[in-house]
Amino acid sequence: MLNIPTVTLNDGTAFPELGLGTYGLRGEAGVAAVVAAIQSGYRLLDTAVNYENEREVGEAVRESGVDRDELLVATKIPGRSHGYAEAIDSTTGSLALTGLDHLDLSLIHWPNPSVDRYVDTWRAMIDLREQGKIRSIGVSNFTEQMLTRLIDETGVTPSVNQVELHPYFPQGALRAFHAAHGIRTESWSPLARRSELLQEQVLSELAEIHGVTPTQVVLRWHVQIGSTPIPKSADAERQRENADIFGFELTLDEVGAISALERGRLWDGDPNTHEEM
Ligand code: NAP
After folding, report:
1. Best substitution site from 34, 194, 217, 237 to test ligand 1's pocket, by max atoms within 8 Å of Cβ?
2. Domain ranges of the chain
3. Considering 42, 51, 118, 168, which one is annotated as catalytic?
4. Which of 108, 189, 245 to probe ligand 1 with, by most ligand atoms within 8 A of CB?
5. pLDDT attached to residue 198
6. Which residues, other chains included, contact 275 with Cβ-Cβ below 8 Å and sequence gap of 6+?
7. Which fold has domain 6-259?
8. What is the 188 CA–ligand 1 centroid distance (Å)?
């Protein structure tokens, strides 16, 4: 079984340096895919109310044979549940669907600034953490300004900010802000959803040098820039490939060469304007 190292979050939680994305993993095939990942060593499972697979993820936790205490189930509160009471209801629903007695991490999925209720949502999450229903609380797709507002208005800094991050969009300024405030960065679509990224010449050259695959080079880059990638794969072989990145190291120059692929967001998901319910 692969051993995925951890880092310590600002609330003391040991948080894996790589996790499993589960978007699109649904039904019995979805349960089987998540079980396969857990059995090969994944400990962090990233779901969301809007992925409509919290039931499958909970089922996989029970079927995996791995102690519940070793696993971190992360979910997200959708835009339509912003607000104090709504966030409590959303979490109650996630607990019921997963069949778990606590969630390890909950994130505000999108800030939806025009709705302007993410601070109330955050207050509910602070209370849910105090009640033990959620162990760690964080956000997703938050900008520096939005993070600053949460911290200023509640005094509670998110443990995690999960954002679009891959070599085409390395998020240098936001990562520096996270580092200064003790917020762990998590990378969504870490492989840029496969796209043409994996064909980039610099990645095949580095793969050749290190005797690994271009995918492994990309995921290792995430780890070395201090972000937890959550690659999604439905396939047990590719899941193992993606998690087997802790036996080699890129040089600083190599990390820089990968970051130089920067060209911007791929899907027009600027959190100041893009909103999801
Ligand atoms: P991704 O992980 O960058 O890419 C997934 C794609 O890459 C799938 O088509 C997968 O196909 C393929 N793949 C995986 N491993 C591979 C390998 N070793 N070789 C070749 N192809 C490989 O994209 P994503 O699913 O969009 O992002 C990952 C997770 O981030 C999501 O599942 C979700 O949990 C989270 N997410 C969060 C947000 C947010 O707003 N917070 C937004 C988007 C995504 P197979 O399954 O066939 O292997």
Report:
1. 194
2. 6-259
3. 51
4. 189
5. 96
6. 79, 110, 112, 113, 114, 115
7. TIM Barrel (3.20.20)
8. 8
Percent of the chain with pLDDT over 90: 99
Mean pLDDT of 35-51: 98
Query: How large is the average pLDDT for residues 219-227?
Result: 98
- 23 is a catalytic site residue: no
Q: How far is the CA of 46 from the centre of ligand 1 (A)?
A: 11
Q: Is 201 exposed, middle or buried (0-12, 13-18, 19+ CB in 10 A)?
A: exposed
Q: CB within 6 Å of ligand 1 — which residues?
A: 21-23, 46, 109, 140-141, 162, 188-194, 215, 230-235, 238, 241-242
pLDDT higher than 90, residue 195: no
Residue 194 banded pLDDT, cuts 50, 70, 90: confident
Mean pLDDT of 9-18: 98
